[in-house]
Amino acid sequence: MASIAQWVEGARPRTLPNAVAPxxxxxxxxxxxxxxxxxxxxxxxxxxxxxxxxxxxxNDYSDGIRGTDDVRAGPLRLVGSKLAAPRAVLTAAVxxxxxxxxxxxxxxxxxxxxxxxVGAVCIAGAWLYTGGSKPYGYLGFGEVAVFVFFGxxxxxxxQYTQALRIDWVGGALAVATGCLxxxxxxxxxxxxxxxxxxxxKITLAVRLGDGRTxxxxxxLLAVAFVLTLVLMLATPWCAVGLIALPLAVRAAKPVRAGxxxxxxxxxxxxxxxxxxxxxxxxxxxxxxx
Length: 289
Prior knowledge:
Elements: H1 4-10, H2 17-32, H3 38-66, H4 86-109, H5 115-128, H6 142-163, H7 168-191, H8 193-199, H9 204-208, H10 210-231, H11 245-256, H12 265-288
Helix pairs in contact: 2-3, 2-6, 2-7, 2-12, 3-4, 3-6, 4-5, 5-6, 6-7, 7-10, 7-12, 10-11, 11-12
């Protein structure tokens, strides 16, 4: 039986910035339009956090029953390590996604009911990433999905539910957040290239190879900070987002140095911190600018 600490680790708390940062960014974009709603922001946060926990447990379940996690260099997986029964992990995933669905329906009902359909697509995307007969995460589309769901949809959806419209500031924030969020997955898949190749999980990193995946990671970080400069056209205060640059440099250092395996685990943490600090700083600039 897995302990509470192991269940928490299985939820992969290091990925929580992927859920929290888009809500901060989207709320900042709504505030820029003079329409921030803090109770809607909190509901969006519940949706995002419950969604990513559900995704992580669903991936743990699907990868575990396929045997993908039998040999693994990354963080703990509950099913792959035989610490929890597959049905228990599946139940945790379903409960988390159900919480996200309920909170999402309430948020959409008080904003724009057609967003319920968008939420349904998001939940389907969460399951089909590694679930189903042909999971798209095994075909090299994981980074694209993260960019769309945890970048474009999460940021612009948060802005729209509060302001009932989107603008170029929200678009720039969405692309930058999507790049940083995708960079977390790129780092994860870079670390897992040997084991994913062995298990037949053809991620984008496996397709690109080690060298080009390292370049992609650095390019995604660079795009986010270039867009920070673009956001200064809205208000010069957005330059405060550059305070996250040292964290990005620290995240990229092991990647640039050619490290692999468990030596790349800190890259996920530092990339997530980069995204969280950046989103907080830029959102604050838009709120007070």
